[in-house]
Write a structure and sequence with these properties.
Elements (H helix, E strand, L loop, with lengths): L16 H13 L9 E3 L2 E2 H20 L14 H15 L5 H20 L20 H22 L15 H7 L3 H4 L10 E6 L5 E7 L5 E3 L11 E5 L1 H8 L5 H7 L1 E4 L1 H7 L8
Parallel strand pairs: 3-6
Antiparallel strand pairs: 1-2, 3-4, 4-5, 6-7
Helix pairs in contact: 1-4, 1-5, 2-3, 2-4, 2-5, 5-6
Length: 284
């Protein structure tokens, strides 16, 4: 088995960074002066979320393009998740002197650099850890796709703060399949502590967007692995059916597992289906 084969077929998100940044810039240019202070996340305004994305751009370009890796580091004994949250908070607080117009101008500049960097990247190289997928290190294709989902998720949070429909909720566009596909790579890690006989299959279906589906299988050596193509004769032991809006909100913890279960249709072995509803695809 090739390294990281349990994560399934690679997701190629490289071509999505340019369009995603264009959508963000269009959104930010429509923000009225009084709307920049609206709450987008607990403790963060619309302006703060935009500044956070700029920090993401700078950090990725510094490390991956420029080989500059002397930024913030965990303190002794500091958990990785706590370090990420702290460094994000410190950046946002330090950047509050940057005006919204300057943020938008700079995001246009750095967004172009990020899109060109990813376009030239080798998806089979080694990337940084993706903790929610249990991959340390992660293949670069997952590291890349994870970055795209972060940009996309924060744009949805800004849309919601402005009172606009988020993607997956009409009249907004559908959730991009590449975003859902990336989020679902958390499935093997989500089920890691769930025991089942080798060959047991669990399927997740997003039923309002062209019947997108993902299957994980209990591996013979333990753990779970992605199996994108469910054999025709292989009925899953459990299946979770949900709409795209519920799926992405669960994965970024905009809703919790209990709310996701109440919205989803759970079929087959209950404990397996309920375990799927614990899935999270962000550092949480």
């Amino acid at each position: 088995m090739t390294p990281h084969a349990w994560l399934g077929e690679p997701v190629d998100a490289r071509g999505s960074f340019g369009p995603e940044r264009a959508a963000l810039l269009e959104l930010l240019r429509s923000v009225e002066p009084g709307q920049w202070r609206r709450t987008a996340l607990p403790g963060w305004s619309v302006r703060d979320v935009a500044a956070h994305l700029l920090g993401d751009d700078y950090a990725r370009l510094a490390w991956m393009r420029d080989g500059h890796d002397t930024g913030a580091a965990p303190r002794p004994g500091e958990a990785f998740e706590a370090f990420i949250h702290r460094s994000n908070r410190e950046w946002v607080e330090a950047s509050r002197r940057i005006s919204p117009p300057m943020l938008v101008e700079t995001l246009e500049l750095t967004g172009g650099h990020v899109a060109r960097m990813w376009a030239r990247s080798d998806l089979h190289a080694v990337g940084r850890p993706v903790s929610w997928a249990g991959a340390d290190p992660a293949p670069l294709w997952l590291d890349c796709a994870r970055d795209l989902t972060e940009y996309w998720t924060h744009r949805q949070q800004i849309r919601a703060a402005l009172g606009r429909a988020t993607e997956g909720t009409p009249p907004a566009p559908p959730v991009p399949p590449v975003v859902l596909d990336t989020f679902m790579r958390a499935l093997p890690h989500t089920l890691a502590d769930v025991s089942a006989p080798a060959g047991t299959r669990v399927r997740v279906v997003v039923d309002d967007q062209a019947e997108l589906a993902w299957t994980v299988r209990a591996a013979s050596g333990g753990g779970w692995e992605m199996e994108h193509r469910l054999p025709a004769a292989a009925d899953p032991a459990a299946q979770v059916e949900l709409d795209a809006a519920t799926a992405w909100r669960l994965c970024v913890r905009a809703i919790g597992p209990a709310q996701a279960r109440s919205r989803a249709r759970l079929r087959g072995e209950r404990r397996l289906a309920e375990a799927v509803c614990r899935m999270v695809s962000i550092i949480y």
